[in-house]
Amino acid sequence: MNMKTISLSLAALILLVVAGCDKTIDVTQPGEYIPSANDELATAWAPFLADTNALVVPAPPADVTAELATVKAAVAGRTSEQNAAIAYWSSSALMRWNEIACGLVAKYNVAPYAERNADGTFTGQFISDPNKPFTNPPYASRMYALLSIANYDGLIKAWQVKYKYNRAAPYTLDPSISPAVAKSTLPSYPSEDAVIAASARDLLTFLFPLEKDYLAQKAKECMDVRVWAGANLPSDIAAGDSLGHAVAQLAIAYSKTDGMSKANDQARWKVKEATITTTYPHWTSQEIPARPPMLPFFGEVKMWNVPNVEAVRPGPPPEFGSAQWNKDMDEMRDLTKNRTREQVRIANFWEDGSGTYCPPGHWNLIACNDIRAAKFSTVRAARVLAYLNSAEHDAAVSCWDTKYTYVTPRPRQVDPSVTMSAGLPNFPGYTSGHSNYSAAAATVLGHFFPANAASYTAMAKEAADSRVYSRIHVRTDCEVGVTQGNAIGAYAVQRAMKERE
C-alpha cells in the first residue's frame, strides 16, 4: 500500500466520524482550487441527458453598471464569516457538493429496522420511511450517477453559453475590484458554481426530501460567495441558478422512468425465485428476524453506458460440491482461523458498510484527490465524475442482475463455522458488489489518469480481496466480479473516447 492510499484511509476515517455527527462533510481542508486550463473544447462534448441540448439561456444584460456597484459593495463589506465561506467553496464547488452527497449517503445508510409489538415480538413489518431513503450501495450508486451527470450536463451547456457571449468577470470589467479568489480568463456568464449548486440542490432535495432546508442554505451560500469574492455579477448567478434548476428537472424526470420504482417488488420476487433451480441452496436472509432481500429487481434499472445486462452477465458459479466450490469454502474456513494482520487491515479499509458513503463514494474520494492533483478545469473534473459514476451505477445494475439470477448463498449459510469480521449483506453472494464497483472505477479512472492506471488496478484487486478476507464472499464471487466490472468500465471508456478529450 503506497502513501497515497494510506492518506485516503485517514480521509475515510475523518469522513465517517464527521458524517456521524453532522450533515456536513469535510474530509480535507484544501486550498483554493485553480484549474490549469479552461477547456473551451468542452462546448462540443455530448451530455448524457440529450434534452440538455434544447435548453435556452438568455443573453446577459448589456448594462452592468448597477451590478458592478453591488459587487464592489459586497467586496468592501465582507465579514469574517463570509471570508470563511469563500475559502470553503473556492476549494472547488463541484467537489464540495460531491462531499455533501457522500455525507448524505453516510447519514441515511441505515437499514430499515424491525417493527415490534408492545411485548417485543416482531410484527412482520420493517419500518421504511420514503422520506428517509436507505442509501444502500445500489441506491447510492444511482444517486452519485444522477448528481454527477446533472452537474456535467449543466456545465457543458454553461460552457457553450460562456463562449457564445464571452462576458468577462467583474474584476476585468472594473479593475478597481480586487477579488478574493484567483483571477480567471474563463467567461463569467453563467456562473459555473451556480449551475453546480442549483442542480445539486434540486436533485438531492428530490432524493433526500428531509434535507431541503439544509441543501437550500448550502446552495445559497455557494452562490453568494461568488459575489462576495468579486468573481461573478448577480446576473451570472441568476443565469447559472436557472440553468442548474432546468438540468436537475431533466435528471429527476429521467429518474422517474429508469425502473427504480419497481426494484423492490417483493411479491414478484417470490414468484420468480420459485422458478430458479440450482445445485446449491438458495440464498436466504441470515438476519433475525429475516429481512426481505434488498432490491431484487435493481438489475432491471436502466443503464447509462452498457446496452443491456445480458452483455455483461457472467456465466453461473461453480456447482455445489465441485472442486472449485470446495476450494472456495476451504479458504473461508482457513481465514476464519488464520487471518494475517495485513488481511485484517485490508478488510477494514475497504469495508464501506453501514453508516458510510458506500463503495462508490470511496472511489469518488479517490477520483477527487487525483482531479485536484491534475488541476482539471471544472467541466473536465465533472466529466471524470460523470463517467466514473455512470460506470459505478451500471456496475450496481449488472451485479444485482447477477445476484438475483443465480441466488447463491453466503459462506456462512453453507457452513455456520465460518465467522465474519463485517456485517452480512442482505442479498445473494455471486458476484461481489465491491469487486464490480472497484474494477469498473479502476478502468474508468485509468483512462482519465493513465499514469495511475496500475495503481487503480491494484486498489481494485485489494478491494475485491477485502471481501474474501472478511469472509463475506468466496473468491470466485470476487474474481468474476472484477472481470464483470472491467467490462462495464470499458463501455464507459468506449463512450468517452468518441469525443475529443
What does this structure look like?
With 501 residues, this protein is an all-alpha fold. The chain has two domains: 3-255, Orthogonal Bundle (Vanadium-containing Chloroperoxidase, domain 2); 263-496, Vanadium-containing Chloroperoxidase, domain 2. The protein has 18 helices and two strands. It has helices at 3-21, 65-76, 80-89, 93-108, 137-165, 170-173, 192-207, 212-228, 234-255, 266-273, 323-338, 341-349, 358-374, 378-406, 411-414, 433-448, 453-469, 475-496; strands spanning 114-116, 122-126. The chain has a two-stranded antiparallel ribbon with strand order 1-2. Helix 7 (192-207) runs parallel beside helix 9.
Task: Please provide a brief summary of the model.
With 501 residues, the protein is an all-alpha fold. It contains 18 helices and two strands.
List keywords for this structure.
2 domains, single chain, disordered N terminus, Vanadium-containing Chloroperoxidase, domain 2, 501 residues, 56% helix, two-stranded antiparallel ribbon, mainly alpha
- Taken together, the total number of domains comes to 2
CATH architecture field of the largest domain = Orthogonal Bundle
Element-by-element helix/strand order: HHHHEEHHHHHHHHHHHHHH
Q: Strand order across the biggest sheet? A: 1-2
What would the principal axes of the Cα set say about the shape? elongated
Secondary structure tally: strands = 2
- Helicity, in percent? 55-70%
Please give the structural blueprint:
Elements: H1 3-21, H2 65-76, H3 80-89, H4 93-108, E1 114-116, E2 122-126, H5 137-165, H6 170-173, H7 192-207, H8 212-228, H9 234-255, H10 266-273, H11 323-338, H12 341-349, H13 358-374, H14 378-406, H15 411-414, H16 433-448, H17 453-469, H18 475-496
Antiparallel strand pairs: 1-2
Helix pairs in contact: 1-4, 3-8, 4-5, 4-7, 4-13, 5-7, 5-9, 5-13, 5-14, 7-8, 7-9, 12-17, 13-14, 13-16, 14-16, 14-18, 16-17, 16-18, 17-18
